[in-house]
């Protein structure tokens, strides 16, 4: 009988590297040494057994490709965030269990640590190259036992009392079967999603996979920073990238349709407000807009894009990206 267990991070990383380059040795740490004298086969076998017992990646046979999911999901997240923020480099915070040491495998306690994963979009790489860059960046996992607080102290970045240092976006991936389930004898236990009053990060994007192959993506966000329209657009863009991504397609082309809508809206916002330019996340009202000017925006949108957007939608999402997300939902909003 073969028992299937969820793969550890070390197993997933070896699996991904082998799938990316089956003939390479990036996943191997070769050591050569010479031993002279008679060979004690029994002692050699015992030494190898001890080595295998200590290093979990050598214990398990796993299907190729399983660990590529998190790399693809993280890369797609970086594409969307880079597009929305207009940046070529994005930092994602990844929560790690931090239980690589066998001494803590059965210890109760909270050992979770944050690792910063860099997504490099510079040079407009195709999706294949981006996956390679993300795979290389997973070397940060080798230092997952370094406390995040110590890393922040060493780098000493400018601090903001209302923002998390270094990373403001957290990405979480839960493969099928990896979500913890509480079981109590004689009791039925059901998990409830709670709407907490505060967010741990400015934005947390979480992907949960089920055994039937489906995935659920949800976001936790700070309402002081983002509005619901922006989050709706972000999730729609994320789905779009995952549906359309192909290995040979440059990342700049993965969201080209939304980019065209945003460019038109940027020009409309700027013209109505009488300013030179408007950022994708600039609040219309904070730039001097008011309700009468908002009517002008709605009229211009209908004339230039042939779509209707209601004043209520513009009030709720008074930004370029928010308005673009509302426009690109199925059907017109009124």
UniProtKB/TrEMBL annotation:
<keyword id="KW-0436">Ligase</keyword>
<dbReference type="InterPro" id="IPR023213">
    <property type="entry name" value="CAT-like_dom_sf"/>
</dbReference>
<dbReference type="GO" id="GO:0047527">
    <property type="term" value="F:2,3-dihydroxybenzoate-serine ligase activity"/>
</dbReference>
<dbReference type="InterPro" id="IPR029058">
    <property type="entry name" value="AB_hydrolase_fold"/>
</dbReference>
<dbReference type="Pfam" id="PF00668">
    <property type="entry name" value="Condensation"/>
</dbReference>
<dbReference type="GO" id="GO:0009239">
    <property type="term" value="P:enterobactin biosynthetic process"/>
</dbReference>
<dbReference type="InterPro" id="IPR006162">
    <property type="entry name" value="Ppantetheine_attach_site"/>
</dbReference>
<dbReference type="GO" id="GO:0005829">
    <property type="term" value="C:cytosol"/>
</dbReference>
<dbReference type="InterPro" id="IPR020806">
    <property type="entry name" value="PKS_PP-bd"/>
</dbReference>
<dbReference type="InterPro" id="IPR036736">
    <property type="entry name" value="ACP-like_sf"/>
</dbReference>
<protein>
    <submittedName>
        <fullName>Long-chain-fatty-acid--CoA ligase</fullName>
    </submittedName>
</protein>
<keyword id="KW-0597">Phosphoprotein</keyword>
<dbReference type="InterPro" id="IPR001242">
    <property type="entry name" value="Condensation_dom"/>
</dbReference>
<dbReference type="GO" id="GO:0009366">
    <property type="term" value="C:enterobactin synthetase complex"/>
</dbReference>
<keyword id="KW-0596">Phosphopantetheine</keyword>
<dbReference type="Pfam" id="PF00550">
    <property type="entry name" value="PP-binding"/>
</dbReference>
<dbReference type="GO" id="GO:0031177">
    <property type="term" value="F:phosphopantetheine binding"/>
</dbReference>
<feature type="domain" description="Carrier">
    <location>
        <begin position="256"/>
        <end position="331"/>
    </location>
</feature>
<dbReference type="GO" id="GO:0043041">
    <property type="term" value="P:amino acid activation for nonribosomal peptide biosynthetic process"/>
</dbReference>
<dbReference type="InterPro" id="IPR009081">
    <property type="entry name" value="PP-bd_ACP"/>
</dbReference>
